[in-house]
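Predict structure. Chain length: 62.
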Amino acid sequence: MTTQTLFQLSRIGYLALLLLLSGWFIQQGINGTYSLGFSLIWIVPLLFPLKGIISGNPYTYA
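Prediction complete.
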């Protein structure tokens, strides 16, 4: 596997993780299990490295 392929796999994996966790917390919020504030506590920190991951900055992965 080349480095470019691994970067692409890690981007796809990160975006999938972000989408799955967001969907799960939204579903739990609809059921009334979690509040919106609790869901944001888990989702917002995952958004911080998103710019570096999308642009391909290798220091974001370290």
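Summary: The mean pLDDT is 85.
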